[in-house]
Amino acid sequence: EPPADFICPITTELMSDPVMAADGHSYERSAIERWLATKSTSPMTGEALVHSFLAPNHTLRRQIREWEEANAC
To answer: Strands 55-56 and 18-20, how do they pair?
Structure first.
C-alpha cells in the first residue's frame, strides 16, 4: 500500500504528476484541472480557493518515484 500522501484525494489513485493547489493539498494535475474547470473550491475543505494556480510538487513526485522503485510497481 502506498503512503496516504501519495494518493490523490480526488481520484484515490497513486499520483504521477502531483501539484499543490491554493488549499495546500496535493492532487493529480489532470484531476484538479478537471475540478477547477467547473468549481473554485477546495475538494478537501469545500472552502473557496484564493487562486487557481497549481504548483508542481517536485518533492512529492520524487518521493512517489522512489517508493515505486523500492516496491517494484
So the answer is: antiparallel
Q: What are the distances in angstroms from CA 63 to CA 11, 20, 68?
A: 19, 15, 9
Q: Measure the CA–CA gap between 66 and 42, rounded to whole angstroms.
A: 28
Q: Is the pTM of this model over 0.70?
A: yes
Q: Which three cell numbers stand for residue 39?
A: 468549481
In whole angstroms, give the CA distance from residue 38 to residue 68.
Answer: 32
17-57 residue pLDDT tens: 999 999 999 999 999 999 999 999 999 999 999 999 999 99
Whole-number Å distance between alpha carbons of 41 and 63: 27
* Partners of 28 in beta bridges: 18
| Top CATH class, 4-72 | alpha beta
For residue 29 the three cell numbers come to 494535475
